[in-house]
Amino acid sequence: MRSIWNSCILALSLCAAPALPQASLDPYLALGDSIPFGMNVTLLVPGRPLPTPNQFVGYPEIMRDLSLRIRNLTNASCPGETSGSFLDIAAPDNGCNHPHLQPGQTPAELPPFKTTIGLRAAYTGSQMQFAVSQLLSNRNTKLVTLSIGGNDLLLLQLRCAAEANPAACLQTRLATEVLPAYAINLGRILAAIRIQGRYSGKLVLLKYFTPAADVQSTLAVAALNTAMEQVGAQFGAKTADGFKAFQLASLPFQGDPCKAGLLTRLSATVCDVHPSAYGQRILAVTTLLTALGN
Asked: Tens-of-pLDDT digits for all 294 residues of the chain?
């Protein structure tokens, strides 16, 4: 049943496939966090050699494989990047430039991803600095995609976990601290892309999916996506609805993306928060069709 449903979802998503080669999206610059990077925690096995960046496959690589008009892809994403650290490497993040805390897990702390495993694009400064430099050096860039903000929520979740009332902490700080700061940071990122990078081409922001079926997670992600869409509209950015795409694919599984096979499976009943290969393909198709739309 699952394989049949997955095939149906992909078939529906790709119904416009004959139109994909018609628009040029090359060169393509992908920006963001672990989602476009293609984080797969099953590759990070204690005691085994560290994987190389090219062993991870995110939706930008799948987009390149799906579209005949994407050949020159630069994927500058960094796992753990927050909207703040995207602008300034000294800002708190979830493992890109700083150690990644793993409460209750072994090891309890992982070193910065950028300086251990490394990135597909070699840079030491901020992702913002690299993006501007890349755009100025490649004035014919046709597409920029951005996935940023998910780690802002994850850091908030870590901060609130030790509070007496984690749910109340999440709700209050999300509204009063995280979302306002995220909107400001995202505005600065998009302004730099458009103004400092002198980029006037297609700009697509990918909405986040919810990694769990619970109401609190869904509302928090939806609030972040709303802020993303509102800020993005001010800079002529389109939004690819990864949120709805995952909801649709999870419908036969009580809205659970883990049961739907959209997330990387850690055991028979537990999934990581990152997309599986199937989940990445859903995000790739959603983003590609948005980029090709008018």
From this structure: 454 445 444 544 444 444 444 567 899 999 999 999 999 989 988 778 889 999 999 999 999 998 877 889 999 999 999 999 999 999 999 999 998 765 445 554 678 999 999 999 989 999 999 999 999 999 999 999 999 999 999 999 989 988 999 999 999 999 999 999 999 999 999 999 999 999 999 999 999 999 987 888 899 999 999 999 999 999 999 999 999 999 999 999 989 999 999 999 999 889 999 999 999 999 999 999 999 986
Using alpha carbons, list the distances in angstroms from residue 224 to 178, 239, 272: 9, 13, 20
Domains assigned to the chain? 2-292 (3.40.50.1110)
Q: How far is CA 170 from CA 41, 80, 151, 224, 258, in A?
A: 26, 19, 14, 13, 23
CA 136, 60, 150, 208 torsion: positive or negative? positive
**Can you tell me the distance from the alpha carbon of 250 to that of 244, in angstroms, rounded to the nearest whole number?**
10
Maximum CA pair distance of the chain?
A: 55
Q: Which residues partner with 31 through β-bridges?
A: 146
Q: Is 173 exposed, middle or buried (0-12, 13-18, 19+ CB in 10 A)?
A: middle
